Structures are given as C-alpha cells and as structure tokens.
Amino acid sequence: MSVSRPVVHPLEAPPPPPDxxxxxxxxxxxxxxxxGMPGTSGGLVLRVCQLILSAVSLSVMASTSDFxxxxxxxxxxAAVSLxxxxxxxxxxxxxxxxxxxxxxxxxxxxxxxxxxxGITSTLTFAAASASAGIxxxxxxxxxxxxxxxxxxxxSATFMAFMCWFAVSPSFLLNFWSLASR
Amino acid sequence: MSVSRPVVHPLEAPPPPPDxxxxxxxxxxxxxxxxGMPGTSGGLVLRVCQLILSAVSLSVMASTSDFxxxxxxxxxxAAVSLxxxxxxxxxxxxxxxxxxxxxxxxxxxxxxxxxxxGITSTLTFAAASASAGIxxxxxxxxxxxxxxxxxxxxSATFMAFMCWFAVSPSFLLNFWSLASR
Lengths: 181, 181
Prior knowledge:
homodimer
C-alpha cells in the first residue's frame, strides 16, 4: 500500500484508459491494473484455463498407444507438458499474490512473465499446428482412421489450440503492460 | 510600384525534413520513432526480407509436383501467398512514406498494421509448423524420401519459418508503439 495518497489534480488529468483503473496511479513506474495481468483474479482464471486445457491435451495424447511413432505427436506431448508446468507455476504465483495482496506489476516481473509466455505459447502453437498437419494428413489425405486413433489425435490437437488461445491474452497483456509503463 | 508583389515570408515555408521525420512536430499522440516501425528504412528492410522469404518459400513449394496431395502443403502455399501480398503492400506504403517524408505513426494506422501483421504472422507460423510436421513425418518417421521431394519440402518450410522470424519484429514493434503512445 502506498503511503502517499493520490491527489486530485485537474490539470494533470490524463486521458482515461479504456478498461480497468480510472484512477491515475501515484507512482511513476506503477503500471495499470488490467484484469488478466499477473496478480489479478482474471489472470488466475486465465492460468487455470491454460493448465486444464494443456493437461487434457497431454493426457488425451499420451493415452494413445502409438503417439511415439510420430515426431509431431511426441513434440506436442513435450510442449503441452512444458505449458502445464509453466501455467501451474504462474497460477501458484497468482494465488500467492492474491492472498497476500501483493502487486506483481513491476517491470522486471512483467518482462520475465512476457518472455516465458511468449516462449511457451509459441512452442504450444507450433506443436498444435504440427499435430494438426499430421492429423489432417491421416484423416483426409491418407484416410487411415481404421488403424489410427483419429478421434484422440483430433481432440488433443484441438485442446492444444484452445490452450494457445488461453495463453495469448496473458502474453499480449503482459507485453502491453510492459510497453505502456 | 507594384502592390501585388509576392512577399517573402520565411516563417510560412519551412524546408522539408531531410531524412524521414527527424524534426517531429511536438504533438500529444506522436509516438516514438523506432527503426523497424512503418515509415522507417528499417521497416522497409523488414518488409523486403519478408517479401523475399515468403516468395522463395512459395515458389519452392509450388515447384514440387505433388504438393496438392497434402493439405498442410496446400495451406503453406496459401499462407505464404497471403504473406507475400501483405508484405508487398506494406513495402509499397513504406516506400511512399519514405519518399514523401510522411509519417505513418498515427494510432489508427499502427493498430491496422498490428492486426494485419498478427494475422499474417500467425497464419505463416501455423503453416510452417504444419509443413514441418509433415516433412519430419516423411523424412524421419516414414523414411520415404525416395518418392518425395524431401529437399524442397524442407527448404520451403525453412523459408516459411525465416519469413515468420522477419514478420515478428514488425508485429512486436507495432504492438509496442501502439501500447506506449
């Protein structure tokens, strides 16, 4: 909690942000508090969504017996494992920040989270795209669903794409907050 | 004595700025001028790199006779075609802005370019990943390079990834300039 209370100053009124806090922060490097950023409940919801989706994708893909025969499917398992680990870590950090009431909006923390989100989301998206390429190849081009687990391959790929859709807001919000400080 | 003599008025005719917009007039929504952003020579270099890489990827993949038999390769051709078109358009805009000395740093233009870069780079990256999945599947898992153009598939995929690496700075710089205005 800041000791110096924000003083109402009509001359310094900046243009109000579209969403989130309308009150100007009292500190120079304090960033705007947007739902979805680390340390907010929206951010925690995003992390939990990422964790569930990547865990489902991982377990569905790992439950097929023949996924190690295709490189792209092995890569998908590795990528969503990393994504699960990263999202779980950040979810724990978010829960800690929410319980203690501590702010996670320092530029150093934001840049660390931005880099981590950028790397994991890129890996997850690449793995999902590669698996989608193989799945569409098996289903449409080869038409060999009789000997392959097409349903599970499709489900795991879809879940990985959904997971990427859940990681992207975290990355973009972190990057935005890093740029607009 | 002629009354209608043209009067020399030094204040009303400022010489055009020599390179780009080095003498930016003080304006409230003026953004910082970073090399790589639209309207700068660095941005033009990025656009030309994107155009060359996507055009090479397109022509290498289209030169194989059997690319239409795989969905991921057809998708790669479509994605790098769109990327070439987008990069060519933006390169022309950059050349115009550099020649005329016009600034492209309005928030509306930046958001338009950010959205376009985001869409095309995502499509290019997804196509490159899907093609990489199929290429690795053919080369490593099936080991059927005797009947496939493995070299050309690999080259086209590699060029598409390089193209994505050239698009990403444009997207990130545009997004950054949009956030930090």
